[in-house]
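As agreed, record copied across for absentees:
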Amino acid sequence: MIKTLGGQIKEYKRDSFLTPIFMILEVVMEMIIPLLMASIIDDGVNKGDIHHIYMVGIWMAAAAFGLFCGVMGGKYGASASTGFARNLRKAMFENIQTFSFSNIDKFSTASLVTRMTTDVTNLQNSYQMLLRMCVRAPFSLVIAMIMSFSVNAKLASIYLAAVIGLGLVLALIIWKAMKYFTEMFHKYDDLNASVQENVSAIRVVKAFVREEYEKERFRKANEALYYLGKRAERIVSFNMPLMMFTVYSCILGISWLGARMIVQSALTTGELMMLLTYCMNILMSLMMLSMVFVMLSMSVASAERVTEVLREKADIVNPEHPIYEVKDGSIVFDHVSFQYKKSSEKQVLKDINLSIKAGETIGILGGTGSSKSSLVNLISRLYDVTEGSLKVGGRDVREYDLETIRNEVSVVLQQNVLFSGTILENLRWGNKEATLEECKRACALACADEFIEKMPEGYDTYIEQGGTNVSGGQKQRLCIARALLKKPKILILDDSTSAVDTATDARIREAFAREIPDTTKLIIAQRISSVQNSDRILVLDNGEISGFDTHEALLKTNAIYKEVYESQTNVGGDFDENGGEA
């Protein structure tokens, strides 16, 4: 874990090195000042030697160099810690981009957000404390203790007893508080999940009048976080009272014993002042250390969570000698079986054997949970097959460069996503170099041009985050147009026309047949009308092939297909076959 996190310091090694150097210099300067003060009192004030006072005063002014060291330590410490946090966030984000779907399945979205924000901030604060306080506090404590014993071992023993006693009590406080701090980070995930789901689905919440339910859900997550935080802070709050009690007790003890020693000429006034100053240094250093331990202990949980993301290796990577060209859009499933987790006993797809020619249009039909999406996700290698082989263009998909295969296999996923930006910017996700004319042609094929041209700003119309200012059907057509701009050899529509009327659906399919005849088209749909004109139709049932033939042949030979067809046609056809849009 330390090696993984330490690797993110990178260009901030110099700042990380200079910070403790300046902190040590600051402590050295601070430790000299009590000695000079004692000299002024004993050899200057008490003896009436004004020249000595001036000379020592000059040395004290020079010791103010410690202020400069403190400022520089703060400057370099801030630079190192914020840079460290920046590198952590960058490394996590870049690693997440390499994840396959199976990697992403291990982490919730809310958890990843918490790790990249709250957890990284904790590590940033801890790193700064490590560079500054964790160097300053023990160094100051040790030097002050040595100086105190060199002046008067009897009085310095009071410090030693106080340090040991207070150290034990603070260790107990930290130990009891730690379990609450550790649990708090899991509650942050729950809180973030509540907020994220509520904000992203606010329209559904309002449509079903579930505001009170969401408020109660948030209240529970917030209360759990509050309860744990309160318990932890309540325990930690004993630090300061114990600290001040110890400080005042030491001051009283030293003052009382020191005064008696001064009367007995066993101690000078300057030495007593020096011991009192060192007393404050020692106990304040111990207090700083307790804060460092609390912060570092809190950060252990954060460090583990961040390291988990950084160490996660993508399940799907490029082969050693990848292929950079896909010959055509032919697809062959050869005894393919698939399961999401290796430890899972149930297979999602079982012994799939298919051969699809380049340029064919294949409809895919099946009930909910029949693994239609799982089947097509294997083609672009979003997941890898568990058994068997899957070939595209005559070669196993695992032999291709990942970017190459995913550019040639364009997928319009079931959950359509648009990003904040103009329509043109969203379209160019498919091809960042696409011209305006190419974008217009893709939109014409996807029947998206008709509503874009009616918008006041046309292709420069701004799309809100998540595409909230366009309808479901408009969003689907924009996503299809975006996929077409990749000019793929294989186009997969995963239930991507469910929100458009059947007339528009038919026009999209006609445009595909006319304009991109060489592109292999796989269309997952729930409506028979969306697939019945396909070259062949694949019927899936519980992850197995129930039928694979033309519409007419399946009506005669496949009971599942016939049942779906009759259920959709015996009641007068699709409700929207005459037009309209969802």
Summary: The radius of gyration is 35 Å. Residues 571-582 have pLDDT under 50 and may be disordered.
